From TrEMBL:
<comment type="subunit">
    <text>Homodimer.</text>
</comment>
<feature type="domain" description="AB hydrolase-1">
    <location>
        <begin position="47"/>
        <end position="331"/>
    </location>
</feature>
<dbReference type="GO" id="GO:0004414">
    <property type="term" value="F:homoserine O-acetyltransferase activity"/>
</dbReference>
<keyword id="KW-0012">Acyltransferase</keyword>
<comment type="similarity">
    <text>Belongs to the AB hydrolase superfamily. MetX family.</text>
</comment>
<feature type="binding site">
    <location>
        <position position="326"/>
    </location>
    <ligand>
        <name>substrate</name>
    </ligand>
</feature>
<comment type="pathway">
    <text>Amino-acid biosynthesis; L-methionine biosynthesis via de novo pathway; O-acetyl-L-homoserine from L-homoserine: step 1/1.</text>
</comment>
<feature type="active site">
    <location>
        <position position="296"/>
    </location>
</feature>
<comment type="function">
    <text>Transfers an acetyl group from acetyl-CoA to L-homoserine, forming acetyl-L-homoserine.</text>
</comment>
<protein>
    <recommendedName>
        <fullName>Homoserine O-acetyltransferase</fullName>
        <ecNumber>2.3.1.31</ecNumber>
    </recommendedName>
</protein>
<keyword id="KW-0028">Amino-acid biosynthesis</keyword>
<dbReference type="InterPro" id="IPR008220">
    <property type="entry name" value="HAT_MetX-like"/>
</dbReference>
<feature type="active site">
    <location>
        <position position="325"/>
    </location>
</feature>
<feature type="binding site">
    <location>
        <position position="208"/>
    </location>
    <ligand>
        <name>substrate</name>
    </ligand>
</feature>
<feature type="active site" description="Nucleophile">
    <location>
        <position position="142"/>
    </location>
</feature>
<dbReference type="InterPro" id="IPR000073">
    <property type="entry name" value="AB_hydrolase_1"/>
</dbReference>
<keyword id="KW-0486">Methionine biosynthesis</keyword>
């Protein structure tokens, strides 16, 4: 790869060999959609790799504005930014609705279980394809943060800086219960079993409305969705907002990828096979910033405090936000402040 490469157009990378998954299943052919922004400098040491959350895509400038983009903390004028759409998704990468190879039919609900480690294996294959020997900053929130911490455990010397936002070392029983409740809503939709690209749409709409309650907070709903008069008996703003958000996701995502990737999130456990969470986090050697959100009920601050406690030399910051878990996408001014502080922090191993 040239040190002057620059592209914001989508690319597709096909893994050179079948992907053996952690549970033993085999995906015979895997394609990954990814995007890059900016240019590699002569030293090839200005790489920022972004791991995205559950329903996002490779276009980080679109879904994380204010943090990535011209004039932002991660400005492509200074950084070479890489973001890959995860396997299992529906934005150009191999997933339940895309055939596993050119001679097969789509797998839909028969798509094999993916773990966070499988997602990381594909990131690693793409990194090798791009010939990136060092990554300055690895960053992710939520499921993206789960990928980032897993990758940093696997490759302690690859990353100079690690930024973990609203995420954890092991997905909680609370988080798994939220995901299972959403999947039950999808499974209750009889069209899900029909295995068509539109299958499970009504269930996905309900699942998204349910998920939103874990992404936001009581205060956020009180401020934005409370009725402006005392006369309403029906047709409440909060009700229409839930329907609107469900419709938005159905228009851009599918139920099969949602089920697959929510199961991936449930699988997250950096301590599996490594002697536990503490031992696994102790492998990380990157300078680490861990950020929590005070109103996050899905990934509460205690989970980020655990990360910071067991990652050597980690800096911990707490973001005050009314937006709950979604604050990691919305509070970019606060994120920028924490990142600026982190960039000048003296790091001690």
């Amino acid at each position: 790869m040239s040190s002057t490469i620059s592209s914001d157009a989508p690319h597709v990378f096909r893994l050179p060999r079948p992907l053996r998954l952690e549970n033993g299943a085999l995906l015979p052919q895997v394609e990954i959609a990814y995007q890059t922004y900016g240019r590699l400098n002569a030293a090839r040491d200005n790489v920022v790799w972004v791991c995205h959350a559950l329903t996002a895509n490779a276009n980080v400038l679109d879904w994380w504005p204010g943090l990535f983009g011209a004039g932002c903390h991660f400005d492509p004028a200074d950084w070479f930014v890489v973001c890959a759409n995860v396997v299992g998704s529906c934005y150009g990468s191999t997933g339940p609705v895309s055939p596993p190879d050119s001679a097969a039919e789509s797998l839909y609900h028969a798509f094999p279980l993916l773990t966070v480690r499988d997602l990381v294996a594909v990131h690693e294959a793409l990194r090798e394809h791009l010939a990136l020997r060092q990554i300055n900053t690895l960053i992710g929130g939520s499921l993206g943060g789960q990928q980032a911490v897993e990758w940093a455990v696997q490759q302690p010397t690859l990353f100079e800086n690690l930024v973990l936002i609203a995420t954890n070392a092991r997905h909680s029983a609370w988080g798994i219960a939220f995901n299972e409740a959403q999947r039950l809503a999808i499974f209750a939709d009889p069209t899900y079993a029909a295995a068509t690209p539109e299958g499970g749409a009504a269930g996905l709409r309900a699942a998204r409305a349910m998920a939103l309650l874990s992404y936001r907070s009581y205060d956020a709903y009180q401020r934005s969705q409370t009725e402006t008069t005392d006369d309403a008996l029906d047709g409440f703003r909060a009700s229409s907002y839930q329907r609107y958000q469900g419709d938005k996701l159905v228009a851009r995502f599918n139920a099969y990828s949602y089920v697959a990737l929510s199961r991936t999130m449930d699988s997250h456990h950096v301590g599996r096979g490594r002697g536990g969470v503490r031992e696994a986090l102790g492998r990380i050697r990157a300078r680490t910033l861990v950020i929590s959100i005070t109103s996050d009920v899905l990934f509460p601050p205690a989970e980020q405090q655990l990360l910071a406690q067991h990652i050597q030399g980690a800096m911990y910051a707490e973001m005050d936000s009314q937006y709950g878990h979604d604050g990691f996408l919305l509070e970019t001014t606060q994120l920028t402040h924490f990142l600026e502080r982190f960039s000048v922090q003296t790091y001690v191993h």
